[in-house]
Design brief:
Number of helices: 10
Strand content: under 5%
Largest sheet: none
Mean pLDDT: 79
CATH class of the largest domain: Mainly Alpha
CATH topology of the largest domain: MetI-like fold
Number of domains: 2
Low-confidence stretches: 5-9
CATH superfamily of the largest domain: MetI-like
CATH architecture of the largest domain: Orthogonal Bundle
Shape: globular
Helix content: over 70%
Length: 282
């Protein structure tokens, strides 16, 4: 009996091995193929379409790696700038998450507050950031504080919208059940509305995480006082026509955005992945 059970387990493990390989292949092969195509197009434009005197517009990728990443001085300077922008993005994202949660919870508890606050949040989102750069510099200076303000402005709206939508998405029948048991507002919020809102909350967090990186780069581009961030490096290399260093900074800022987006995706899978799958199946 034990021998047959072990044989079945070993055969199941052997059968699951190809399916696992197919899963990893289907996940990683398409991005690799597309990446190879992009690199091929990159080389074609650099060597096939651009003349030698205009090749600074798009330096080949091996030159970008050699100058932008393998050169010790350039790598150290770029990584210091990246860390400065990362600090600004994390601070701005933390403030945006706190404000967004507070405002969304308040609006979910009273329609009057939702009608009063939401139009101003839409207005803030609709204002071009370039239009208020002079005001930000006038009120907060031209240092790190202004960069954080830009991050908060850019990252705040998705958190408010998604959190409010999630809090209001709990089923009406469940609300009636909580009313039947005379649950107070805090209990209803903690045990019903917040669990139902988790998928929407994490969707907003992933969007805002990427936007906070954009805000850090944009803010650093306009507010250059203090420790230089990746935006200042982009401006400096663009002014000096340093194609390799410029593309290296672009790659680093993109990698930072992908990293924070991926981190919140992992947190979402850990927090609500199984619950959301079970809820969708039912």
């Amino acid at each position: 009996m034990n021998i047959s059970i072990k044989k079945e387990e070993s055969s199941a493990a052997v059968m699951s091995q190809p399916s696992r390989i197919r899963k990893y292949t289907s996940s990683f092969l398409p991005p690799l193929i597309l990446g190879a195509g992009v690199i091929g197009l990159w080389y074609y434009i650099s060597f096939g379409l651009l003349e030698e005197k205009r090749r600074f517009l798009l330096r080949p990728i091996h030159s970008v790696i050699d100058v932008g990443f393998l050169d010790g001085d350039n790598r150290t300077e770029s990584l210091k700038a990246l860390w400065s922008s990362t600090e600004v993005a994390l601070i701005g994202l933390s403030i945006a998450i706190s404000l967004g949660f507070i405002l969304a919870i308040l609006m979910s508890q009273a329609k009057f507050l939702e009608r009063a606050i939401f139009p101003y949040m839409v207005t803030l989102q609709a204002i071009p950031i370039l239009a208020i750069v002079p005001l930000i510099s006038f009120w907060f200076g031209t240092g790190q504080r202004s960069r954080v303000v830009v991050c908060v402005i850019i990252a705040l709206f998705p958190i408010i919208v998604n959190t409010l939508f999630g809090l209001q998405s709990a089923e009406r029948g469940m609300h009636d059940l909580f009313s039947l048991h005379h649950a107070n507002r805090f209990t209803r919020l903690r045990k019903l509305m917040f669990p139902a809102a988790l998928p929407a909350i994490f969707a907003g967090l992933r969007i805002s995480a990427g936007l906070s990186v954009i805000g850090a780069v944009v803010g650093d581009f306009f507010f250059g006082k203090g420790e230089a961030g990746i935006g200042q490096m982009l401006k400096k290399h663009a002014n000096r026509l340093n194609g390799e260093e410029l593309l290296a900074c672009v790659i680093l800022s993109s990698a930072l955005g992908v990293l924070v987006f991926w981190i919140f995706g992992v947190l979402q899978d850990k927090a609500v992945g199984r619950w959301h799958e079970a809820n969708s199946a039912s």
